[in-house]
């Protein structure tokens, strides 16, 4: 069929022009045949694809593989290596600030951009690297890397566990979002819009874990149904790239941050769910109410650290008593929630300390990550306390212990 018979072409419009104003497409009121309607729809689709670009909706194609570093993937009882220890539970409700770092985990060849504890138990720790790799660490026992996941062509920006920890999401600068099986290291699904994802979150409700939300570089939040792989919703009324997505109000709403009026690149929900802590690039942590309107609490603010220019994570202790954040000098800062005063600073990294996570069960332990490629594990028990315990044990039991 030539252009004269194509109702979407200029030649067809000229042939069927009825008045001086009929040259515009919206000015033509002619009943189209079924064949012409079909042709017009196909023409419109092809034109849209041409304008958008054939490869614009795809991320980089990268070979996916995973390496297990542990001794055995199953124990003698047939339990998976990701299974939480049976005795994992909080000893008490009060948290204590760590005094020094007690362990260092290395394995990433470039900076570590994010860390996440295995939800509720915290016996495993997931890390996202600028070396394009994701690693998972044994926190409860050896402190060693258990598995490495390789599926991105560029640095990994964000990571997020599913509720039961058996799967996780990771977002990379290669424009891909990967959904992994934590235990086997297999990629379950890949999602992409052709734009860089800055943050990935699953709906926290157990019956809505198939809903994926991704904050994108192109000012959109994209929602996928992970079962079908289809985009089900787009939120595009944002002023800039979406850096965070935080669910509130019993997961009926979510809060996002955008880079305007002092960008807030990181947000964390207080354990009581009534407040949000937002890392602001004017070197303050701002507090917002999570009620109907996200209202700024002008009296409550935490300051002293220098964070301008970086997306430092902000977080809470599980009991809500402390607020914490990293800074550009490798320090981890702790503030008292009630008094707003600095309680302690702890030197953990050389250069940027970008991520901080309080252990969900071990009330005195905190993990940090930095652009020096290291993960530090900090504790409230000092070296002197350990030595004192060993000395007492030696005196009481009559055991000779080497220095």
From TrEMBL:
Q: Where is this region: Disordered?
A: 1-29
- Transmembrane domains' residue ranges: none
Q: What PROSITE patterns does UniProt report for this protein, alphabetically?
A: WD_REPEATS_1, WD_REPEATS_2, WD_REPEATS_REGION
- Pfam families attached to this UniProt entry: WD40 (PF00400)
Q: Known Gene3D superfamilies for this protein?
A: YVTN repeat-like/Quinoprotein amine dehydrogenase (2.130.10.10)
Cellular component GO terms, alphabetical: catalytic step 2 spliceosome
Alphabetical GO biological process terms? mRNA splicing, via spliceosome
* Swiss-Prot/TrEMBL WD repeat ranges: 105-139, 149-190
Could you tell me one molecular function GO term of this UniProt entry?
Answer: mRNA binding
* Xref: InterPro entries: PRPF17 (IPR032847), WD40/YVTN_repeat-like_dom_sf (IPR015943), WD40_repeat_CS (IPR019775), WD40_repeat_dom_sf (IPR036322), WD40_rpt (IPR001680)
Q: Which protein are we looking at? A: Pre-mRNA-processing factor 17
What is the native source organism of this protein? Papaver atlanticum
